[in-house]
Fold:
Amino acid sequence: MSGTQDHANAQDTHAEGHDAHEGPIKTPKQLIVAVFFAFVIPIVIIVMLANYVSSEIKPGAGGSGLEAEAVAARIQPVGSIELKDLSNPAAMKSGEQVFQAQCSACHATGAAGAPKLGDHDAWGPRLKSGFDTLVHSALKGKGNMGPQGGGDFSDFEISRAVVYMANQGGAKFDDPKLPAAAASGADAGASAPAAPASGASQ
Structure:
């Protein structure tokens, strides 16, 4: 009897061990439900998060989003083009304006060895080289200063800035003259006879 009892105890132990290794899903119906929710719940969460992130107040039909000002603000150009009349010196920037916009970063502080505006000692040796050499150095670059020509300002405007800085440093340079092509265009426009009014008697 002892052998039978040992055998029964072994079967009970084996059954308990077998039950311990079983998962929570015991039937095919439970498996289908578990698989269904394993896919549905993450998809619902993703959809809800996407709606939350992209939700903003959108104008309805006839709302302010279609007004001319709102449309113009949405389609405004990224950049713009500024055309300069090279024959009109008044339309160009003055030497001081060019200095403030482009040159002051270095020449107001003396950065990278640039002579400070108004520093007679620093400008003295440079002024001895003459106006044309200073303008050439500004346009083509020299030492730590990169070329200034071909940027936002015309060569004429850069030369005005050179005159402004040099005169602050002790020079007595005159304002530069317009380039020959621009000056001849200005003269031609000024000397052209006025067109007769339409319908005038001959």
